[in-house]
Here is the input.
Amino acid sequence: MTVEARAAFLAFFFVVWALVGLVPWLGVAVCRRGRGVVLALPLAPLAGCVGGVLVPLAGADDARGFLLSLAAAFVAGGAGTLAGVLLEERLAGPGS
Here is the structure.
């Protein structure tokens, strides 16, 4: 496999993990009608990528590991979304 093919393969994984990490953000954004979720937007896909990459680093690098990494990206994306929402509420202050 060429270097370019390996880079494209790896980029595909990161794009998929980022998109899966955005799913919890999308749910929260719809429920909150877009209010208070702006800071969570960059955190959700970043956390999804981190959660997804931790599974292969732990040794699960087969088909089951890929599915597990998708679940980990979803959970990590939810955690990143929650962190972003709480951070934005804290920065907004009470009564906002």
